[in-house]
Structure prediction request, 97 residues.
Amino acid sequence: MSERQRPVTLTPAAFKKLEQVSTATLTSQLDKHGFRSTFLQGLYPLRPDMRMVGYAFTLRYVPTREDLVDELYDNTKNVQRLAVEQVEKDDVLVMDA
Prediction:
């Protein structure tokens, strides 16, 4: 699969630097630039020793009503499945469900 065109491309050095920045610092910077409520309260990492840095690959999942549209359940054409299959190296799947 060929890589998607990204509006911003990070160098390996930038990825390394971002791995050193705390979530609180990133959230504060987003807030200063007008991006409010960019985090969920009360979450704790399962692996505090690991850091995750990548390009956000966003997906919004809205359940469909199978009683209205049977063909939406053809697994090979499911838009959520197709989106998940497009996730590439350095992507982080961010899902609103």
